[in-house]
Known about the structure:
The chain is of the alpha+beta class. Among the domains are: 1-57; 183-204 and 225-332 and 423-464, Nucleotidyltransferase, domain 5 (2-Layer Sandwich); 334-411, no CATH class. Helices cover 49% and strands 15% of the residues. It has 18 helices and 13 strands. The chain has helices at 5-25, 33-58, 113-118, 127-139, 142-153, 159-170, 173-179, 245-253, 284-299, 315-324, 334-345, 354-368, 372-385, 390-405, 412-418, 425-439, 448-462, 466-482, and strands at residues 67-69, 75-78, 83-89, 92-98, 101-102, 109-111, 191-202, 227-238, 265-273, 275-277, 280-282, 307-311, 329-332. The strands form 4 sheets. The protein has a 5-stranded mixed beta sheet, with helices on both faces. Strands 1-2-5-6 form a 4-stranded antiparallel beta sheet, with no helix packed on it. A two-stranded antiparallel sheet has the order 3-4. Helix 9 (284-299) crosses helix 10 (315-324), helix 11 packs across helix 12 and helix 11 packs antiparallel against helix 14 (390-405). The protein is elongated and about 95 Å long. It starts with a helix and ends in a 13-residue tail after the last helix. The mean pLDDT is 91.
Amino acid sequence: MIMTQEQAFLKAQDQLASLIAFVRDASAQALRLDELERGLFSRLLQLGHSLLSAHVAAQGDGDVGETATTPEGQTCRRLPQPHARTYRSVFGPLVLSRFVYGARAGQRIEYVPLDARLGLPEGEFSYLLQDWAQRLCLQGSFAEAAGSLHDLLGLRHGVRSLEHMNQAVADSAAAFADSRPTPPADGEGELLVFTADGKGVPMRRRPQAGPRQHPRRRGKGEKANKKQMAYVGAAYTIARFRRTPEQVVQELRVADERPRRPRPCHKHVWAEMTQVSQGEAHNGRVALFAHLAGQRRRRDPARAKPTVCLFDGEPALWEQWLEEFSDTVGILDIFHVLERLWEAAYCFHPEKSPEAEAFVTARLRMLLEGNVGGVVRGLRQMKTKHRLRGPKAQALTRAANYLDNNRDFMRYDEYLAAGYPIGSGVAEGACRHLVKDRLEQTGMRWTVAGAQAMLRVRATYLNGDWEAFWEHRIAQEQQRLYGPKAAVPTLDMAV
């Protein structure tokens, strides 16, 4: 039975009286304050449901006559019977019965005046409930989010519905990111920096055709689940920070003596995975660099800022840099270089030994002074001199080849003098915060579509754009559903 507004108000008045009586009786019942708080909250949810029902009831049944005109100017006829739809609010579900308009019964509904008047979303979930649900989904698993919604609001939502909601929300994220205004010039640093890296995402196994087979024993080093690469990138500006090679060496050796660094300004993170759409593969690395190129057009349209790109030694990243950013300064991340130097050191000295540290420090200093060739020649000569064989010889060769192949991006003496960053800590942090902290939680497995959706929504949140994104998403959906004159209320409804 659908209540009138007056009936809903009377119910709300009874609930309010009951709520006041509950507070008055709290002392006699010796309730702890938290028990009173819980009781108040559950009763307030019931009161909110009644008041929401009262507002909906006041809007009528959407009957605007035998015919109605859609926002596109099309005339359609009222269908004989009212149609019901469920609206799931933070206070609980409401069932709305309203007249709809179309060509004739059984065909597509063209216009629903009550939905337009109320600004209902396309699906069942209210915009506020979607907002709260997605904030929970961004932090923990979909199952945990569903449990929290039940514990907090008494709402029951399935994991699958939250997954679908996440993918629907993600559909708006890329367009929103491209539409963001340029950061104010007085809040930007002198240098524009781009960095990228890859991070594996654990994937679900594809359904097995035919009868299920007994799982075989995994070989040495074989993983239980395959991973697919998510390419993670960041764009930011930063002030110059000039240092000498000796200062950098000292920073890396003694953490307490690190000077105060300039902070990145207006950092923007993003991630793309390789996807197959309509039978065609869309490379995640290519998509990420296209997105970063869009950030460059937005933040430095005249290409007036000195621009730096920081990557590790993955050849595919540098190939893509050549496609999109060849006019920028490419720098090999110094921390990946250090990893190779440590591998070389352990060919001659025990791990964590003072001798190994001295080995690395000496060669790091040479690299920072611009003497890449000297380090490469020295490593190769040491291999011959010490007559290394087997794994140690292979490790030393890998280290020497890595430095030799990337020497064009290792002019660290020039970079330090110019005040350029030489470490891709921002990319490492983005991989951790954007991918690992959410997509690699215990037991998690993803489809490509599900992982990509979560990455886009989570990137929007981490970029500090959540409220603006939500306003954008509501405006876009309302205009698509109800035309350009659709009313989009502000999200700031605090009193």
